[in-house]
Amino acid sequence: MTRVRWMWIVVAWLVATPATAQVLDGEWVRRSEQRIADARQTDLRVVVLDANDRAVVDAPVRVEQVRHDFPVGFTLRDTTWPSAYNADAPLWRVFNAIAIDGVTGWSAYDEADRDALAKVIQEARQRGMFVRWGGGIAADMARNPDWLSDVAADDQRLAIEAHARQIVQRYGWQVDQLDLYTHALDHDLIERRFGLPALRGLYEQARADSPNLKLGVRVHDRLVGDRLQELVRAITDWRHSFVPVDVVAIEQRVRGTLAQAPVERALSWLSELDVQVVLVGLEVGGVSDAAAAMNLETLLRLLFADENVGGIWFGDMSAEEVGTPYAELFDADGELTHGGQLVDRLFSELWWTDETLHTDELGNARTRVFAGTHRITAELGEGRSVEMTVHVPMDADERMVVVQEGF
């Protein structure tokens, strides 16, 4: 079957088929669901007791997910929230994380409104969102801020170190991740000018100033091909040189056709680096709207099924801003595209816990849930019920929750 004919079949199928949580099918898709369950779900045991500590038998127990632990986010280009943002609306409801790249880059930070930046971080925290700081220091000399060019060459290392410390000390306790070194591999400002020990010192100092902050290195379009191999070699060298990198942030744009096997192989290689991988500024397009949706589901499945992947942040999402053909999640009218609908359905329906169980003779109800926060409601009969909200971490062998009447 020719590629053109195959593509038209996919387009026709997308148009004719009612909205579902996925567009792909096949053996590898079914295998991916099992891998996702292994990587992202854990056991939950709910024990229902009455006010007298007696087990309640055959009680309906609803387990309703409130949010994922796995970060899925979008990127802020300034210190204002998107005008269309609505935490309860389709797609927006999926996002439990933000990246503030637009105002935290190597040169952009110096022009940022500090009060507005603090406010947007605070608002994100109040919404319970995971926050990524964008860039710290760029490896690309062309991106140097104006103030650095005014510093004497012999003093530039100290100036760069002071700049990094200012950011980490001020914001390191307010955000979760920071890409301390960006545009790495394509450029090498620190290594070439000052040596790898200087880079190690930057990371060690940042870790000392904010021990809980995850420190990243940011690279571009390195998920597949020869560029991936270069990334693996570089991070291996950094690890051997004791540069304490916690996260590799890959800013990725997908065009053309995305094949499942090479990406799966790439993620396997990256898992051997012993550092977490996150996707940032993500744009997934294709040769058509239908192809882009297929690429998007392929990538999201592979990422979510890999326990070494620690989060996904989309870049520009609107038709006016996105730079990759067919990668927009919102069309020109602000409506969800096929891709936007797909992301929403995957993370709010397919990869989401919402089920009703019944307790056994000992008052137990067991299931597997996606790691995150869940609302548990037990019906005790005669119009009586009890509700509580709990957190179920991924690293728990089994999370036991006691739901008791009167408490």
Automatic annotation (TrEMBL):
<protein>
    <recommendedName>
        <fullName>endo-1,4-beta-xylanase</fullName>
        <ecNumber>3.2.1.8</ecNumber>
    </recommendedName>
</protein>
<dbReference type="InterPro" id="IPR017853">
    <property type="entry name" value="GH"/>
</dbReference>
<feature type="domain" description="GH10">
    <location>
        <begin position="117"/>
        <end position="318"/>
    </location>
</feature>
<dbReference type="InterPro" id="IPR001000">
    <property type="entry name" value="GH10_dom"/>
</dbReference>
<dbReference type="Pfam" id="PF00331">
    <property type="entry name" value="Glyco_hydro_10"/>
</dbReference>
<keyword id="KW-0378">Hydrolase</keyword>
<dbReference type="InterPro" id="IPR044846">
    <property type="entry name" value="GH10"/>
</dbReference>
<keyword id="KW-0624">Polysaccharide degradation</keyword>
<keyword id="KW-0732">Signal</keyword>
<keyword id="KW-0119">Carbohydrate metabolism</keyword>
<keyword id="KW-0326">Glycosidase</keyword>
<keyword id="KW-0858">Xylan degradation</keyword>
<comment type="similarity">
    <text>Belongs to the glycosyl hydrolase 10 (cellulase F) family.</text>
</comment>
